[in-house]
Write a structure and sequence with these properties.
The structure is a single chain. 16% of the residues lie in helices and 48% in strands. It contains two helices and nine strands; from the N terminus they run E-E-E-H-E-E-E-E-H-E-E. The radius of gyration is 20 Å and the shape is elongated. The strands form two sheets. Strands 1-5-7-6-8 form a five-stranded mixed sheet, with helices on one face. A four-stranded mixed sheet has the order 4-2-3-9.
Length: 160
């Protein structure tokens, strides 16, 4: 399990998909990209999807994701993404009352129970008291993280 904090954007892509029976169907699928702005998110999703889709496709929607951190599973069977709402419990020192603050996360897992297990695995290593308020499966297909491009060698392009 690993977690990654970034500026995430949810993107919707519309294209003609060849179904298992050989028929073509127009579908709209959701993806998540790591980007600094809406324009970078659009550029990144076009770049990423160009290698997966052979025909034309259209970016239908881009919105800022309601979560800032994603928990990635190490398991190859973890092919779904779940939106999890956690409530962090703190005690107000002046009033001595319990205060809860909510934070949303995206969790990769193979099942609902796997998502809960992954949340506990990541959050168990922290000292924060928390409650899992909700976990719901999303329709997101994949998450594309930012990767540095291969750095060029320090060698000169020509030799004298």
């Amino acid at each position: 399990m690993r977690s990654r904090t970034a500026n995430w954007f949810e993107c919707k892509i519309r294209y003609k998909k060849t179904m298992e029976d050989g028929m073509e169907k127009t579908v709209t699928e959701g993806y998540v990209v790591d980007a600094l702005s809406f324009s970078e998110a659009e550029r990144r999703i076009i770049e990423e999807m160009s290698s997966y889709i052979s025909g034309e496709f259209e970016v239908r929607d881009i919105k800022k994701a309601p979560y800032g951190e994603i928990f990635f599973a190490d398991d190859d069977l973890a092919d779904k993404f779940y939106k999890a709402k956690l409530q962090f419990i703190t005690i107000d020192e002046k009033t001595e009352k319990e205060k809860r603050s909510s934070v949303n996360y995206l969790v990769q897992a193979g099942s609902f129970n796997g998502a809960v297990k992954n949340i506990d695995e990541v959050m168990g290593g922290t000292m924060i008291d928390y409650v899992i308020a909700s976990v719901a499966e999303t329709t997101l297909m994949d998450v594309f993280e930012y990767k540095k491009k291969e750095e060029k060698d320090d060698k000169p392009e020509f030799e004298e």
